[in-house]
Here is the input.
Amino acid sequence: MKRQMIRPILGLLVAGLALGVASQARADGTNIGVIDLQRALMQVNEGRAAKVQLQAEFKEKQKLLDKRQDELKSLQDDLQKRASTMDPAKRREKQAELQRKYLDLRETYMTLQKQLMGREKQLTSRILQKMQPILQKMAAENNLDAILTADAVAWAKPDLDLTNELIRRYNARFSHKGGKSAKHHHKKTAKKK
Here is the structure.
C-alpha cells in the first residue's frame, strides 16, 4: 500500500523537477529537445525486429513451461484420484514428489523470466548506444543544450519533440546490411518465395 502511494508522489516530484528544469532552461535561454525513448525503441526497425525476436523466444519458453505445467497437473489429478486407495506412505511420497516438481517449475519460470529480461535489456541497450551519437548530432545541429526524455517532462510543445527525427535518422543509418538497405533485402527474399 505504501509503495503504491510512493510511486505517484515520486512521479509528481520527477515531473515537477523536469518542469522546473524546462522552465528554468527557457528563462536562461537554454534550448531543449524532448524524445519519447520508449516509442523510439519500439519504432526503429531494429527495435521492431528485436520485439519479434523476443516474442519468438518468449513463445518457445512458454511452450516449455506449459508442457511442464501440464505434466504437473496430470500428476496432481492422478494423485487426487488414487489418494483414497493409496497406502499412506506412498501417498506422502507422491505428495512430496509433486511438491518438488512444483518448486522446480516455479524455479524454472523465474529463471526463464530473468533470461528474457536480460535478453530484452541486452537488445535495448545496444539500440540505445547506437542512438547516443545520433542524439548528440541532433543536439549540435539544433543548438540544443539538453535533450530530455518524455517521461521526465509533464508537458512540452510539440515542436520540441525530436522522436520522429531520431527514428528516421536511426533507420537511415542502421537499416543497411552489407551495403544493401533493409527494403532491398526484403524484396530479394520475397522474390525467392
Q: What stands out?
A: Residues 88-141 form the longest helix (54 residues). Residues 1-25, 178-193 have pLDDT under 50 and may be disordered. Strands lie at 32-35, 146-149, 176-177, 180-181. The radius of gyration is 26 Å.
